Amino acid sequence: MHCPFCRHPDSRVVDSRTAEDGSSIRRRRQCPQCNRRFTTMEATSLAVIKRSGVSEEFSRQKIVTGVRKACQGRPVNDDDLAKLAQRVEEKIRGLGVAEIDADEVGLAILEPLRALDQIAYLRFASVYQGFDTLEDFESAIASLRRDAEAAGSGPAS
Ligand SMILES: [Zn+2]
């Protein structure tokens, strides 16, 4: 693997760590030419099957791009999006499957997005869950309200 800093064609592994769930290995590498360190990640290939039947490699960037649209004008920054995409990837890889439907990826996004921003969540859910009536929005909003009330009531003790 070449060095991302100086493009030296070789690097030395200085540390190797398996993720807790066993789904990936992170390697800390050092470049023998510029001595800088970088991390590589080895994970099993994860294919996303689109509705059209076409499969493509899972990409965190695609999650970010998809969610960013729903977050337009909302107080959500790139850091929040990167963290959300990481949570989604961890959740999906935790399933231990080699391929997953695009719809399931969409569903895996809903929960962390709901915690991040409720308006972005409603926009995203309306597309992924195919809201087509006002009642769909009303029941989603009612569910968000119940959450807010449950959170606002404080610890039961
Ligand atoms: Zn280098």
Automatic annotation (TrEMBL):
<keyword id="KW-0805">Transcription regulation</keyword>
<dbReference type="InterPro" id="IPR005144">
    <property type="entry name" value="ATP-cone_dom"/>
</dbReference>
<keyword id="KW-0479">Metal-binding</keyword>
<keyword id="KW-0067">ATP-binding</keyword>
<dbReference type="Pfam" id="PF03477">
    <property type="entry name" value="ATP-cone"/>
</dbReference>
<dbReference type="GO" id="GO:0008270">
    <property type="term" value="F:zinc ion binding"/>
</dbReference>
<comment type="function">
    <text>Negatively regulates transcription of bacterial ribonucleotide reductase nrd genes and operons by binding to NrdR-boxes.</text>
</comment>
<dbReference type="InterPro" id="IPR055173">
    <property type="entry name" value="NrdR-like_N"/>
</dbReference>
<dbReference type="InterPro" id="IPR003796">
    <property type="entry name" value="RNR_NrdR-like"/>
</dbReference>
<dbReference type="GO" id="GO:0045892">
    <property type="term" value="P:negative regulation of DNA-templated transcription"/>
</dbReference>
<dbReference type="GO" id="GO:0003677">
    <property type="term" value="F:DNA binding"/>
</dbReference>
<keyword id="KW-0547">Nucleotide-binding</keyword>
<feature type="domain" description="ATP-cone">
    <location>
        <begin position="46"/>
        <end position="136"/>
    </location>
</feature>
<keyword id="KW-0678">Repressor</keyword>
<keyword id="KW-0862">Zinc</keyword>
<protein>
    <recommendedName>
        <fullName>Transcriptional repressor NrdR</fullName>
    </recommendedName>
</protein>
<keyword id="KW-0804">Transcription</keyword>
<keyword id="KW-0238">DNA-binding</keyword>
<keyword id="KW-0863">Zinc-finger</keyword>
<dbReference type="GO" id="GO:0005524">
    <property type="term" value="F:ATP binding"/>
</dbReference>
<dbReference type="Pfam" id="PF22811">
    <property type="entry name" value="Zn_ribbon_NrdR"/>
</dbReference>
<comment type="similarity">
    <text>Belongs to the NrdR family.</text>
</comment>
<feature type="zinc finger region">
    <location>
        <begin position="3"/>
        <end position="34"/>
    </location>
</feature>
